[in-house]
Amino acid sequence: MTAARRARRRRWPRVVAAVLLGPLLVLGLVLGLALYLLYRSVAVEVDARLAGLHDRVAPKVYARPFVLRTGQALTSHELDERLDDLGYTRKDQAVAPGEFDVQPTEVRLVPRGGTAEGQVVRVVLSLDAAGRSGQVRSLESARGGKIAEVELEAPLLTAVAAGGRGRQRQLPLAQFPPAVVQAVLAIEDRRFYSHPGVDVIRTFGAVVTNLRGEKKYLVGGSTLTQQLVKNSFLTPEKTYTRKIREQMMSIVLERRLPKDQILELYLNDVYLGQRGSFSVHGVAEGAHLFFGKDISNVTLAEAATLAGIIQSPAAYSPTRHPAKARERRDVVLRAMMESGYITAAAGETALREELQTAPGSIDAEAPYFVDYVTQLVIEQVAMRASAKRVAVHTTLDLHLQRVAQDVVAKGVNEIEARFAKGGKLRGPLQAALVAVDPRTGDILAMVGGRSYQRSQYNRATTAKRQPGSTFKPFVFLAAFELALREGRTDLTPATVLSDEPAVFMVNGEEWAPRNYDGEHDGVITARRALARSRNLATIQMADLTGYQNIAALWRSVKPGFTARPYPSIALGVFEATPLDMAEAYTLFPNLGEVRPLRAVSRIEVDDGVAPLPEMGHPRHVAQPGPTFLVTNMMRSVINEGTGAAARAAGFALDAAGKSGTTNDLRDAWFVGFTPELLTVVWVGLDDNTPVGLTGSQAALPIWTAFMKRALSGHRSQAFTVPEGVTFVEIDKDTGGRAGPFCGHLLSEAFLAGTEPQTLCYTHLGLPGGTLTQMPELMQVPVGQLPPAPPVP
C-alpha cells in the first residue's frame, strides 16, 4: 500500500467527522433548546398548578358544637365516636387538651375549648340491664365538682373538594400518625426522600421484579411525586407524551417544593374511591369514611389498609371487597417490615387483626344534609375564586343525626320484618326524617333515605307526597281562626260532628270518602275526630269552615303552594315534602308564627363573615288562641288517639302530633313535637305505589324511637297557654258542660266567649241510643237541668 493511500485512509474519518459534526452539533443544540423550552413550559405550568393548589379552597362544613348533658342517652361507644368526630386522641390516661381515656363506667376527657377548657372532665355512665352503659349519670369537673353540661367543639362534617362532589380533610404532615406515613412510603415509594422526582432505579427494578414474579404483588414504578402530578396536574389520558410531561413536571415539582410538602399534598389529595356520589380524597377522609375514626386514632392494621387502597381503590375497597382489601393490607404490613418501619412482632400482631369497617359510616357523616347545604351555599359563596378559607357552620346536631340515622335504619328493617310475612308490604321501604328546633327553625337532623350508599335521592327535601291526615290540624286551625274573626261559637274543640258516610260533588263527579279503617263513629267531638283521624268528621268541619278559608290559610303557611278549595283539601290531597311539613308545623309550638327552616348559622370567608342564604323571615299566619287550641287537641293524638303507641313504648314527655295516612295507604307519616323538638317521619315507596301501612304502623315507631333517645334526660315542658283561652270541664264524649253524672270528664280549652253554655244531657238517665237518635236533645241549657233519675 502506497503512502498516499495510507494518508487518504487516515484523512477519511476526519472528513466524516467534519461532515457529521456540524449537523450533530446543530441537532444537539436544537434538542437542548427544545428540552429547555419544554422545561420552561413545564415549569410555568407547574408554577401555575401550584398556585392553584395553594389558592384552592376546600370549604369545611361543621355541625353545631357537641354538648354533653347529665341524663343524656349515650353509650360509651357513642361517646367514643363523638370524641373521635372532634379529633380527640384516645390515650391510656387523658392529660392534655384533646385527649380522652375510656374506663368501664366512665370516660375522662380534656376539652380543648369551652367552659371546661383544659380541665379533666369525668363522664360517669350508668349501665342498663345488659351491663352496657346507656346514659350520662353525671358530669364531674376536676376543679368545680358536678356540672350540668359541657360544650365541646363543633365537629367537622366534611370538607367539600372543588366541584362539590369530593370529600377530603386536609391536615398538615405533622398531624398524620407515623404509621400512616410509613405505610404509604413502604408500599408506594420507599426511596421517596432520595430520588429527584423520578426514580430510574425503582422503575427498572419494578419492571424486572414484575417480569420475574419475585413478589406476590405487582410493584409500581411511579414515585409519589409522579402520582401527585398525574392525579392533580394532568388529564387522565394515557399517552407517551403525557408520561414524558409527567416525569418532567415531577422533576420540576421537586425543585419547587420540599419533600415534606410534596408528601403532605399527596396524603391529602390521593384518591381512595367513591362512596355514594362522593369521591374520597386523602387518607384522613378515608379513615373517617372507612373506619369511622379520626386519622389520629387508626391502628397499624388500619393504616396499612388505607395505604393498600391507593393502588386500586375499586379493587381494594374494604367495604366492597374485604377479602382483597385484607390481602392487600397484609402486603403493606410485610413491606413495612421489609423496610424496617415496624418490628416483626408488631407486624405479626397487625396481620392477625380482623378487618373491621364502620357500618354505614358514610351515612353517619350526614350526607343528605351535606348535599342540601352544598346546594344552598357552597356553589354561591364558598367556591368563589378569591376565597382562601371557607368555614360553613351548620345547625346540624351530629349526635341527633347519628340517632336519627340509626332509628330510621332499624325502624325500616323492623317494619319489613314484621309485616312482610303478612303480605302487607309491596316493595322495599324507604323513609325520611327531619328534626328541627321549632323555636328557631334550626334543622337538627336530616335523613333522606335508609342508605345513602344505595341511593343519594334526598326524600326529605325532594320527595313530594300527599301529606294526608297530617294536614287535618290546619283544617281545625282555619275553623278556630274563623270563629275568632266572626265571633262564632259553633267552631270549638267540643263541637259535635257527624262521622257518617257522605257523598260530595266535585267538578260534576261524586266523591265518597271513607275512614281508613272503613268504620264510622257516628257523633263525635272535634277533639276526638282529630285524635282518631276521622276523615268524614273532619270534612264536615271543613264544610262548616269554608274550603276557601282553609286554602287561604295554607297559602299563608307555605307561600307558593297550591291547595284547591275542594272537600279533598281536608284530607291533605296535595303535595309537600317532609321538609315542607316540618316548617309548616313550627307554627303550632310558636302560637301561630311559622319559623323558616335554616341549615346554616354562619359562613366564615377568609377573615370575615359572608351573608347567609336568604331563608325568609318568621311569618305570623294565625292568632295564638286558635293555634293553642289545635296544639292542645293534638296532645290527645299521642295520649289516646292514633299516636297512643308512643306512650305504650315509654315516651312520657308532654307532646302533640298527628299521624298521616294517604289514599290507598300510599304514604305513612307522623309529625310530632314538644316545645323544643319537632320531628317529621315519612315512610313509603319510591315508585309511589301503596305501602299498605298506616302512619301509626310505619312512621310512628320511628318517630317514637327518635324522640325517646333525642330527649332522654330532658324534663317535660308544657305548651304555653296564651291570653284569651279559658278551660271548662266538659263531658269528653258529648262536648257539653260536665254534669253531676258525667263519667268521662275533660278540662277543654276554648277561646273566651265560645265555651259551651249547655250541660251534657246524655248521662241523665235517657234511654240508650238517645244521643244518636235525638242529637237536638244532646245538650240542655245551663239552669234547665231536668231532675236526676232515681238511684236504683
UniProtKB/TrEMBL annotation:
In the N-terminal section; belongs to the glycosyltransferase 51 family. It comes from the Bacteria. Residues 432-705 form the Penicillin-binding protein transpeptidase domain. It catalyses: [GlcNAc-(1->4)-Mur2Ac(oyl-L-Ala-gamma-D-Glu-L-Lys-D-Ala-D-Ala)](n)-di-trans,octa-cis-undecaprenyl diphosphate + beta-D-GlcNAc-(1->4)-Mur2Ac(oyl-L-Ala-gamma-D-Glu-L-Lys-D-Ala-D-Ala)-di-trans,octa-cis-undecaprenyl diphosphate = [GlcNAc-(1->4)-Mur2Ac(oyl-L-Ala-gamma-D-Glu-L-Lys-D-Ala-D-Ala)](n+1)-di-trans,octa-cis-undecaprenyl diphosphate + di-trans,octa-cis-undecaprenyl diphosphate + H(+); Preferential cleavage: (Ac)2-L-Lys-D-Ala-|-D-Ala. Also transpeptidation of peptidyl-alanyl moieties that are N-acyl substituents of D-alanine. One of its GO terms (biological process) is peptidoglycan biosynthetic process. Residues 68-145 form the Bifunctional transglycosylase second domain. GO terms for molecular function: penicillin binding; peptidoglycan glycosyltransferase activity; serine-type D-Ala-D-Ala carboxypeptidase activity. Pathway: Cell wall biogenesis; peptidoglycan biosynthesis. It comes from Luteitalea pratensis. InterPro entries: Beta-lactam/transpept-like, Glyco_trans_51, Glycosyltr_51/Transpeptidase, Lysozyme-like_dom_sf, PBP_transglycosylase, PCN-bd_Tpept, UB2H. Keywords: Carboxypeptidase, Cell shape, Cell wall biogenesis/degradation, Glycosyltransferase, Hydrolase, Membrane, Multifunctional enzyme, Peptidoglycan synthesis, Protease, Transferase, Transmembrane, Transmembrane helix. This is Penicillin-binding protein 1A. The keyword Transmembrane helix applies. One of its GO terms (cellular component) is outer membrane-bounded periplasmic space. PANTHER family: BINDING PROTEIN TRANSPEPTIDASE, PUTATIVE-RELATED, PEPTIDOGLYCAN GLYCOSYLTRANSFERASE. Residues 166-336 form the Glycosyl transferase family domain. Pfam families: Transgly, Transpeptidase, UB2H. The chain crosses the membrane at residues 12-39.
